[in-house]
Design brief:
The complex is a heterodimer of chains A (about 300) and B (about 290).
Chain A: E1 2-7, E2 28-32, E3 38-41, H1 47-57, E4 64-67, H2 73-76, E5 91-96, H3 106-113, E6 129-134, E7 139-142, E8 145-151, E9 159-165, E10 168-172, H4 202-217, E11 222-226, H5 246-256, E12 261-264, H6 272-288, E13 296-298, E14 304-306
Parallel strand pairs in A: 3-4, 4-5, 5-6, 10-11, 11-12, 12-13
Antiparallel strand pairs in A: 1-2, 1-14, 2-3, 7-8, 8-9, 9-10
Chain B: H1 10-16, H2 26-33, H3 40-47, H4 51-64, H5 75-82, H6 84-104, H7 111-131, H8 136-148, H9 151-159, H10 161-174, H11 178-186, H12 190-200, H13 205-213, H14 223-237, H15 253-258, H16 263-283
Helix pairs in contact in B: 1-9, 2-6, 4-5, 5-6, 7-8, 7-14, 7-16, 8-13, 8-14, 9-10, 9-12, 10-11, 12-13, 13-14
The chains are: A alpha/beta (about 300), B mainly alpha (about 290).
């Protein structure tokens, strides 16, 4: 599989002179299978340039499989500017989770961001043949690529995708934070505090949910992972926002025996110089943890890898 | 007319999907709806006081985690896996739906008293579970079992409150059992209908059994069900809330012997229940005169 990063930023696009090196577009990754399978992971603003590239490359576009990790803006906001949507010969198959809201579907969520108040073209006016499918934890094939999904820990329903082709595997986490014990407020419960016995097994729940995630990324060739925060910011300030810190990523990489890791979803406030500095810290910490620092990469817009 | 109790009437099946919560929690839920940050513990404590919300949240978690059905059994687990806001939003939207239906529908069963019966049974199951040395991690499901045991009655009130009032009146007038009258009017008893709802919600097997079988005075081989049976009878006997069933059931002596429970233990539980219920009522800001 060939992989190219088109958007590496989290939360909101952050263009400008201080983000040229790592990029300012929001989440988008293109995966090309050996049989020309076209898989796009997330439709952040990076998908606009990817759309133009695909139009240039192909006379007749292959079926485009867009796997959305979740429907927060930074993962879908580029979609209205994805030129293949306007091409009548194109088939786009969109899959992803929707949050638990009655009568909402993946399509109705996409429709909302293209309502006339927000965008001049409505979803139904798009010329391409677009299909939508709401996903849970499941497995399916896209050509020769086998795809599995796992729920991540994020404020809305969000999926981690695992792609395998010819024995090689890529996992893209979308947005993910370690599961933690929300009920551990640091206070000792009183022996007769009847209410508190309900929370006694919370650590078991947390360990089991984190174990499922580690199992899902076990031994993968490439892990593209949400790493928005530093250990100074997480967990003390940013816990509960649904993103990880780089020390979480290093621990998971080691525990799951991940072969190579790309750290992405950079915080929008981060300048190139700051990311360079953070990367130095990560490399030092990796050495201390017995991880080869050369197996860790900072996501940059335009970065390409073949696995 | 012969009634086949194994078949479930269509109206019961239709109502299963659209269950509102019972009213006392609405005020508290409205309060938390306007808070940006809700304490996870407080959220769990509020939801745990309502049978429908508790069942719905547990259903949601189990239905979302593909392939791990019947895995999640408690609300703290649900909050860890889904997050505080998801569970809060679910509780708020379900409670608002309930506000409308409670205002529209009237039944002679006093819903607040009925809620107290469910809550008393829930707390009693937790206390009896503790006395029987049930491990702490299972205590949450004992509480939930007590809370949900009469969920079938809520379903009937939801379908046709007037008809359910008639059933309750008939029981008093002719001295027939509630189940008998329910079968005559709805085609099935509240334990049967509740069991179907519990299955639809994909609750744990022990929970389904305790909803279905809590009127078996001889008990069965499910400890949760036996605990619910004993505590349900205890709550009816001492009028902790109002179950709606005018026939007072005897405390199941054989079952109590089988479980090796002393009467002293039951006495301690019944002494503690009014305090626990009042504590919950205070938590929900229910006004003083409604306290037992």
């Amino acid at each position: 599989m060939k992989m190219k990063l088109w958007g590496t930023r989290g939360s909101i696009p952050s263009p400008g002179p201080s983000t040229i090196k790592y990029g300012g577009n929001t989440a988008c990754i293109h995966i090309e299978g050996s049989n020309n399978e076209c898989v796009i992971l997330d439709a952040g603003t990076g998908i606009r340039a990817l759309g133009l590239e695909l139009m240039k490359k192909y006379k007749l576009l292959p079926v485009i499989h867009l796997l959305v990790s979740h429907t927060h803006w930074d993962h879908i906001q580029g979609f209205p500017f994805f030129v293949p949507c306007y091409s009548p010969d194109t088939k786009i198959d969109i899959k992803g989770p929707v949050h638990f809201l009655e009568e909402k579907t993946l399509q109705s969520t996409f429709d909302v961001q293209m309502q006339y108040e927000f965008f001049p073209v409505s979803n139904e006016q798009l010329k391409a043949d677009i299909t939508y499918e709401t996903l849970d934890e499941t497995e399916f094939d896209i050509g020769n690529i086998h795809v599995k999904s796992l729920f991540s820990n994020h404020p809305i329903r969000s999926l981690v995708y695992h792609l395998t082709e010819k024995g090689k595997s890529i996992v893209y986490t979308g947005d993910h934070e370690p599961y933690y014990n929300l009920f551990d407020d640091g206070k000792e419960s009183l022996p007769d505090e009847a209410d508190d016995i309900f929370f006694d097994d919370s650590d078991i729940t947390v360990a089991s949910a984190n174990g499922r995630f580690i199992n899902f990324i076990k031994g993968v060739d490439l892990l593209i992972i949400d790493c928005q925060y530093t250990p100074e910011e997480y967990p003390s300030i940013r816990r509960g926002f649904g993103h990880s810190s780089w020390d979480n990523c290093l621990d998971w990489m080691k525990e799951a025996g991940v072969k190579k890791m790309i750290l992405t979803h950079h915080d929008p406030v981060r300048t190139d110089a700051e990311i360079d500095k953070i990367f130095e810290n990560i490399r030092d910490a990796a050495v201390k943890k017995g991880i080869d620092p050369d197996k860790i990469l900072m996501a940059k817009e335009g970065m390409e890898l073949e696995i | 007319m012969a009634i086949n109790v194994s078949e479930i009437p269509e109206e019961v099946e239709r109502a299963i999907e659209k269950m509102p919560p019972i009213s006392p929690i609405i005020g508290k839920i409205n309060q938390i709806a306007h808070e940006i940050e809700t304490s996870p513990k407080e959220l769990v404590k509020i939801i745990m006081l309502d049978p429908v919300l508790t069942g719905k949240v547990i259903k949601l978690v189990n239905s979302s985690f593909y392939g791990v059905a019947e895995h999640v059994q408690s609300l703290p687990q649900a909050v860890i896996l889904l997050g505080v806001n998801t569970v809060k939003n679910l509780a708020v939207s379900t409670a608002l739906l309930g506000t409308i239906s409670v205002q529209k529908k009237k039944s002679s069963l006093n819903l607040e008293e009925f809620w107290k019966h469910c809550l008393a049974t829930a707390v009693g199951c937790k206390l009896l579970g503790k006395a029987l040395n049930v491990p702490n991690e299972d205590m949450g499901s004992y509480f939930v079992a007590g809370l949900l045991h009469d969920i079938g009655k809520i379903l009937f009130i939801r379908i046709n409150p007037e008809k359910y009032s008639k059933i309750l009146e008939e029981c008093v007038q002719y001295g027939v059992s509630l189940s008998f009258s329910e079968i005559a009017h709805f085609g099935c008893s509240h334990t049967h209908a509740g069991g179907l709802l519990a299955k639809k919600w994909r609750l744990d097997k022990a929970l389904i059994d305790s909803v279905e079988s809590h009127h078996l005075s001889v008990g069965n081989n499910n400890l949760t069900t036996n605990v619910v049976t004993v505590v349900n009878n205890l709550c009816k006997r001492f009028h902790f809330g109002e179950s709606g069933d005018p026939l007072e059931e005897e405390i199941a002596d054989d079952l109590i012997k089988k479980l090796n429970i002393s009467y002293n233990t039951l006495k301690k539980i019944s002494d503690q229940l009014p305090f626990e219920i009042n504590k919950a009522a205070e938590f929900l800001n229910i006004i003083q005169e409604h306290k037992i």
